[in-house]
Every structure is written in C-alpha cells, then in structure tokens.
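WARN retry 2 of 3 for item q-0093 after timeout on previous attempt; input resubmitted unchanged.
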Amino acid sequence: MSRMLSTCENVSRAADLLEDKLHLCPGDRPPIVKTDLSLPDGQKKLAFFLENVMTKQECDAYIKKTEKMGYKRALLTIGKDTQVLRKDIRNSYRCVWDSEEQANILWQRIEPYIPTDFNSRWKPLGLNKRLRFLRYDPGEYFKPHYDGFFEAENGDRSFITAQLYLNEGFEGGSTTFLSTSGNDSQARPLVPRTGSVLIFQHNIFHEGSILVKGRKYAMRTDVMFTPVKLPDDA
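OK item q-0093 returned
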C-alpha cells in the first residue's frame, strides 16, 4: 500500500534527483525577518540580514547535493576571465553550480526586500545563476577583500552580494565587516544562521573569518541589474 511522503522525507530525497535538478520543499517556514546592519566607520551602504529564507531541510538538501557534485579548492578571481589559486588569501573549498531554477527559487523569496531605487540607472533583474557553494573546515578562511562583480555579455551586471548560510553550530567562521582604516574595534562580525541570507553591496570591505571548529557551508551569488534607459539617454 502506498503512502504520502512527509515534507522531511520529500526534502531528504531531493538531493538524489538528476544532477541538474533539485526540487525543494519549503515545508512550514516562519515569516522572513529583516535586520538592517550597522557597518564600520559609519558607512551608509546597503547591508541587511534576512532570517527564515530557507528551511533546515532545504539547506540540508543543498549540502547533500553539492557534496555529491564535489568540492574543489576555491580560486581567487583577479580579472574578468582569470582565476588563480592563492591559499594565503583563500584556502577553503567550493562547488560551482549553474542553475537558473535554484536561483529563481531564492530570488522569489528575497526579491521583496531588494530596493528598486538602489541605483537610478539600474534596476534589479534577478539572481546570478552561478551559485558558488562554499565549504570551510577548521583553519580555513577568506582574508579581507571586496567582492567582485559579475558582468553578463548583454551588459547586465551585479552590484550586490547574496549569501545564503546552510548551517550553524560551528565556532568562528563569521562574515566580518571591517574598517578600511584597520581599526579592529570597528569590526562587525555576523554569526551565520541556517537558512538566513546576508545581502550587502560588493564594495564593502569584509572577510570570511577563520573557522575554529566544525564545518561551515554557505552559498554566494549576486543580485543582477539591467540598465534603465533615461530620457536624457535618447
């Protein structure tokens, strides 16, 4: 006799589907809660934290899926088409998955919180389909940096990072916003929570602080923008 699968059973089997598919089951997800973040040096740039974007079951499915795909050493982007291995700057691992379907699922949940007036000459379009899943083990880090932007062939480009946290309970591993003057007292660490998303402008100085204990999983992508034609452009 057949029986209906529970929400958790459906999600636990999601990562066993075809390589290019992952059907997520949201289950009972609490309302999303937004918190605006205070930045070092009084910077007035876009940075906020969204809780309850994904359920733990959905995050677990992503972890299982990407572990099956495989993680490799994370490279450092030094130009539009150039990446190098620099373990002195970044020594963690990542799994790159191009998926419009999964990018759209996340975009549908966070779109209401993305300001449409962020830039008068650009309007938000969606999320970059290039999903970079990140894995940190003890001793791994991403030294202070600015996030690079992504530019599509048609001229669309990113200005904002969207980082989804897939687990919690580890020690260290915060995303820490830093003062450009080197004032350590201005550091603003953000402790990851499962299913939460950190939204911030690419041009905010930050680091992936060293992981002390446990294992950390996250996923980074970008909010893409398309140019707006203004009357004076005619």
